[in-house]
Amino acid sequence: MSDVLAITEHRRGELRDVSYELVSAGRELADDLGGDLHLAVISGQVEEFAGSLSREGVDTIHTVSEGEEFNHDIYTQVTERLADELDPSVILMANTVNGLDYGPAVATRLGRPLVTDVIGASFDGETLTATREMYGSKVETRVEVGSEEVAVTIRPGEWPEANGNGNPEITEFDAAIDESAVRSTVTGFEEVGGGDVDISDAEVLVSVGRGIDEEENIELVEELAKALGATLSASRPIVDNGWLPKNRQVGQSGKSVTPEVYIAIGISGAVQHVAGMKGAETIVAINDDPNAPIYDIADYGIVDDLFDVVPALIAEFE
Ligand SMILES: Cc1cc2nc3c(=O)[nH]c(=O)nc-3n(C[C@H](O)[C@H](O)[C@H](O)COP(=O)(O)OP(=O)(O)OC[C@H]3O[C@@H](n4cnc5c(N)ncnc54)[C@H](O)[C@@H]3O)c2cc1C
């Protein structure tokens, strides 16, 4: 019992980046404990996924071919059974919509403490020390959990993606799923409204936030996007207000984007927003608050009223 079991994620036929981050985080913790890193690949094209996940530092990959997509009941049952079999010190999951769906169920069933949204962790086998953020990322806290068996969800984007080739053992795990306890099924996917624009494909994004104040002012930012040949995106409050469709939302509960240029206008830079755009090559911020957290990651900033700056930029670019 000094091993780590990490549960990987995929969606619509593709492994999610966080799966490779789970490998890095899992390896670190397994090294702390002097143990092995086991990965679980549940549902979908498990053989193909296991091949991609055969990275340096992975000791064993357990595949379970059951269904195509994420399913709460199947993930919960498989993780519980794998934990019974492997007796890992740490069960590592992603702090995603899926991870937060089945993770608490797994922890409860196994009687393990669960530490969520972790951005750093070490474990000596008796005490897990986890780093988490509080108060909108203004404060970092260290949480110590005295337990030999823990469950942890890691925040996406905090560990590097593991990339060296490895040679793990790949084995099929017979999870003996209790079908009578599988009470939900995925019947299909429907893209949220907003038509055919995919902001994650854009090279230049002009992104608008709550600083725009009113719906009719969005037009101003749209004009700038047009002048630049850019695509319009937004922070969550703009989408929550119904001012732009959901497929324009950047961030933790929206899309992750990696454009060449990201222009954040009237966006404070909350951690949930930054999670979706910190991979942009060049970040430009327009915000009248010099202490806005967006300036911590911006390459260029204009500390001024956006209602003065944006018209001037439009005039310049036109
Ligand atoms: C579980 C969860 C998931 C979330 N997911 C997401 C997500 O996916 N994406 C996301 O964006 N948020 C998300 N959020 C919300 C997030 O915490 C913030 O509330 C949100 O990002 C703030 O949006 P904002 O920066 O537009 O607004 P604010 O934080 O209100 O910032 C507005 C900024 O505009 C500036 N400003 C105001 N007037 C002007 C002016 N005239 N000129 C220039 N600057 C001006 C202000 O100084 C301020 O910095 C999530 C929150 C939770 C709890």
> What's the arrangement of strands in the largest beta sheet?
7-11-6-1-4-5-12
The CATH architecture name of the largest domain reads 3-Layer(aba) Sandwich
Strand segment tally:
17
List the uncertain runs.
none
Task: Specify the biggest β-sheet.
Answer: 7 strands, parallel
N to C succession of SSEs: EEEHEHEHEHEEEEEEEHEHEHEHEH
- Structural classification: alpha/beta
Mean pLDDT: 94
- Tally the structural domains: 2
Computed CA radius of gyration, to the nearest angstrom: 22 Å
Your description of this structure?
There is one protein chain. By secondary structure, the protein is an alpha/beta fold. The chain has 2 domains: 4-181, Rossmann fold (3-Layer(aba) Sandwich); 199-317, TPP-binding domain (Rossmann fold, 3-Layer(aba) Sandwich), CATH 3.40.50. The chain contains 9 helices and 17 strands. The strands form 4 sheets. It has a 7-stranded parallel sheet with strand order 7-11-6-1-4-5-12, sandwiched between helices. Strands 14-13-15-16-17 form a 5-stranded parallel sheet. Helix 7 links the parallel strand 15 (261-265) and strand 16. The longest helix has 17 residues, at 17-33. The protein is elongated and about 65 Å long. The mean pLDDT is 94. Flavin-adenine dinucleotide binds next to helix 6, helix 7 and helix 9.
